[in-house]
Every structure is written in C-alpha cells, then in structure tokens.
Amino acid sequence: MDPAAASADGGSFLEFVDYAISMLSSSGGDGDGSGSPGAGPAPAQPPWGWAVAQVLKSCCAYSSGVTAAILLSDLFQSWTEQRKSLTAKRKVELTNLLKTSNRRRRLPNTITIDSIHEKNFLSPKSVLEAVVINVFAIPGTHIYMLTLGDMWSTSTIDLYLHRRYYKYIEQHGVLKKGREVMLTGCCLRTAMEGSGHARILPTEYMVMLLDEDEDEDALLLAAKFCTYYFSSMLLEENRNNISYSFYARIEKIESLEPFQCTERKQIVLVDNYDARIKFVLWGEQVLLANLFSVGSMLALDSPFIANFVHNSHEESQELCLEYGSATQVYLVPIAQQEEQVGVNILVMRLSALLLLTKMEKIVCQVYVSDIHDKMVGVSLFGTVTSVCKASASGTNFYLEIEDTTGVILMKLKFLGAWLDTIKCFLTGAVI
C-alpha cells in the first residue's frame, strides 16, 4: 500500500472521530428521554479512545460497507445507552405520560418493550402500544428517531421514524413527547449489529392516538376532520382533486376475498349521517387492521379514493377508500367501561369547541347600529331572538340577532357537519 495513501486514509478516519465526538458533545444529555444521566457524574463528551473503539466496532459489523450516517447513529445510540440509567423518576414520568392507557382495551397482538429486549426479536404482526418519550434527530443528519416506552416495561427502545411522518414533527407538531402511538409491521435491528443495542427499523404502519378531552386534540379533530362527510365525496365529480379528511366510527373489520393472490381486508366506517363506506387494505397493509378495534373513531387524512373491486373479474362503481402514500391515520380508541359516544354528539362537541376558539380570537366588537353596506370582517355579539329556515332544503337559516343598539337579520348557510351546529342556536342563546 502506498504510505501516502495510508496516511491520507488515517487522517480521514481521525477527522471523522473528532467530528463524531463534537456532534455527540453538542447533542448533550438533557434528561428529556433517551439522554438521561445516571446517578453518578458523566463526562461531558465521549472519551477519544471509546469513540475510536466504537467506530471500529461498527465498521466490522457492516462488512459490505458503512456510511457516515450509520456510524453516527451507532455512536449516538451507544453513548446514550452508556449514560442512561433508568431511575424511579423516569418510571414516574412514563406512568404519568401513559395515564390514559388504563382506560382502553389492550389489543390482542400487543407485546412489551421488555419482551423485545429479552427475546431480541420482533414479529411484523406484533403491535406495540407506546408513548413517545423523546423525539430527536441523529446528530449530523436529518434522520428522526423516537424513544418509546410502554406501561408494562422498565426499559425503552428507539425507533427510526419513517419519512412519511416527518411532517407531523416539522409542520404540524402533532408527533411529540407524550403522544401515544400504536405501530405494527415492524422489523428489529438486533443487538448483534452496529451499536449493540436493539432498535426498530422504519415502519409505514403507525397511528397516532388522539384524546377528545384534550383541547389540542379536540381542536385538531374539529378543524381538520369535521368539514367533509361521505355523501359529499360521492356527489363531487372532481373528488380526485380534493384532499379529503373524514371522521367516522369503525363498525366492522373483516377479511375480503383475495385479489390475484393478494390479501385484503376492509374496515366499514360510519360517518355523522349514518353513511357507510369501505376502507380497504391491500397486501402488507392488512397489518394496519391490527391497530383498529370496533367502536373506535378513525380520523382519516388524505385517503386514496378508488372503485371497489369485488373479485378478479369485476370492478364496481361503488367508491371505497384506500391507504395511499399520502394517507395518515389518527385513532380515538374506545374506552373501557364507558358508554360509547355517538358520532353526532362527537361532531357537535368538536364543532362547538372550534367555534369557541374562533370567538376567543375576536378582539373588537361591532354593534348593530354600526353596521353599514359593504362591510367585511364583522365581529358581532348578540342574543338570538328568533330562528327560521330560509330554504326548503333546510341548509339556509335566518337568525335575528339583538344587542343593546338594535336588531339585525342574519342569513346563514350551513354545509356538511356544520349543519348540526344550528341545533345549538336556540332562541335566547348568546352568540
């Protein structure tokens, strides 16, 4: 080997070690999940010799080649595990984050994080019911990971997040610490590889759990999932150009006849107007049905709209929903020992909450006596003195609003789920 080339390779190796140490040092150990320090003092940065040994260990584990991102991932995991110590404080925190879990049924295929570590194995058909302990990016990369814990385990595990969920961290902020999730279709990167610590590889089949009693979740449901309903999609000719979001109850989960040897399942959904539609899963997607239970509420964002296929020789004109590349699923699980809440009541409650939130943002009151022609953006407060229909269809209404300065007639047109809110506008109500 050319001495000069060997020297250059050695220089690159040492430069990477120094870079990795600086990245691990900058990531810190904030005690926010995976980086909690133990009872004793921990060094602010990894020792140089330790970092060299870990890099060499990872290089040996990947005989076919390794990237800088993989090396950084292994180093970060090893350094985190070395500093981490599961304490009573951590267990109390995890229990508090999972305080709602006791209210719902544990799914049949659910396994624990402790059993994953014990067996060093994870079946794709297994279900993991967990809470997000931490969300972080691997230092020096744009790769997101979640640290997950569950109610029944004393240990945690890291998950490489699939890129279809990145926007729920970066744009929507829904996927964060404390969020309960359920996932299936998982594969394990075993402890015999890389850093020596088991991690879960990316899966497309993860649902985020929402709680209607939490204002933030209720507002998300009201703002995003109470606009469209199944009949509006059926009547819309340009339906493929619209990004629909539906909120419906799971009525039935059943298997379908295979299509050209491809396994299929359907979830029958019922919306606010008792309209039904099939949510069809194909092939590997059927694993997603392991996360659902009859009676739970499904919030379905951007489903793919298709014609239902009965068998290999027949495609009907009946529309169905499918799990497309842009589809995201939220779940409101059915609670134990509680009366099942109907869709109508849920939609009315969510719609009222959204209206209340909009009213809180109003800062300037306009009186009836101040209103004149061609005004826009008017914020009017008053008492409803009468309500009557303005159209035979029952979607247009006249409301007579009175305040201290006079009376004015208001015409309102309600579409979709908002039609239910008219029931709240009774004579004498203040709006």
TrEMBL record:
The highest taxon in the source lineage is: Eukaryota
Report the residue ranges that make up the Cell division control protein 24 OB domain in this protein: 13-141, 147-272, 370-415
Give the transmembrane region(s). Answer: none
Q: Which InterPro entries match?
A: Cdc24_OB1, Cdc24_OB2, Cdc24_OB3
Q: Which Pfam families match?
A: CDC24_OB1, CDC24_OB2, CDC24_OB3
Protein name from the UniProt record: Cell division control protein 24 OB domain-containing protein
The organism named in the record is Zizania palustris
